[in-house]
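Lab notebook, page 48
Experiment: co-folding of the full assembly
Goal: obtain a model of how the components sit together before planning crosslinking
Operator: M.T.
Materials (sequences as entered):
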Amino acid sequence: MSKIAAGACMSLDGFIAGPEESGFEHLFAWLGNGDVEVPTAQPERTLRTSAASAEVLREHTASVGALVVGRRLFDLTKGWGGTHPWGVPVFVVTHSVPEDWANDGNPFTFVTDGVASAVEQAAEVAGVDKMVGVNGGEMARQCLELGLLDEVGIDLVPVLLGDGVPMFGKLAGAPVRLANPTVVEGDGVTHLRYRVLR
Amino acid sequence: MSKIAAGACMSLDGFIAGPEESGFEHLFAWLGNGDVEVPTAQPERTLRTSAASAEVLREHTASVGALVVGRRLFDLTKGWGGTHPWGVPVFVVTHSVPEDWANDGNPFTFVTDGVASAVEQAAEVAGVDKMVGVNGGEMARQCLELGLLDEVGIDLVPVLLGDGVPMFGKLAGAPVRLANPTVVEGDGVTHLRYRVLR
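Observation: model returned without errors.
Model output:
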């Protein structure tokens, strides 16, 4: 089966969003603070990062075959305007399917029977050669608790947000041990990639 | 004045202790998982770490001239048995001075008029050439809020504790921006050192 990896930009105090959806100008600053261009699947959106971060992003996008996200992020980004920046199929875990979303031929699938089902469907689409990316917060926590996560990728940002949405939250089954990370030093971000030990 | 630096061993989800003072066997595992000996001021206690971590510890202990800790940590460690491992004077921030603690000639000073006073007293003892170390949690948070911190040193441990005592907690005045860290990769720990941006 595909490798399942959760990932997010996280503040040093463990938040993927500040209070009331604030702090993104800090968490995502590294995606625009360099001079190496990284194109996305959105023609109007090109990232500009340090060379080290560009390499991390290129490797990451080349290895991800499908994504699992929560409804909160989908709504917050307005479904990324119809195309996720990584250009891969997205499985949205939700209690109810939005009625006003055009479903024909677009890469979003709404999954109402839980995150494990979404991961399974995403893995089928991704195939064995590519991994499934799970977004941080509630989705990452649930996958960890279900023993579904193989890796955790943290883009650690040098800022303290003080409060907000935690990357992991109150985790049943903690402590969860991780292996030593691979470390890449960017500008305004430290890329840490951990294997989950079972 | 001395440089003021907060530091702690922290889980990837931001805790310096798990629920009900648990998790220390994970947070401090790196202090005993290597074969390079690092003596402490306690004759019976020698740390054994990776070469990279030993170098970080040696540099750190050589640069610290005094410590500011909270009463909780002092009680938890029973005053480190009378001698802190770094062998430097310790200023304990407390509401009331313990009556059963022998004060003659020992390196602990109890400070009842707040953390700023403790930092000031510690800085006087440390002198300009050495820094003041502030322990994580409540003390670090208060120092950050008072604008007293110059640096934050995090020994980031690859474990998720799920809950417990946060390194920073709910921070007034957030977001607080930090500079890019220096990074040293140990075994079972990633040493990150950040300058606080004002």
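Interpretation: The interface with chain A takes residues 11-14, 18, 23, 26, 144, 152, 154, 156, 158-163, 166-168, 170-181, 183, 185, 187-188, 190, 192, 194 of chain B (CB under 8 Å).
Next step: discuss with group before ordering constructs.
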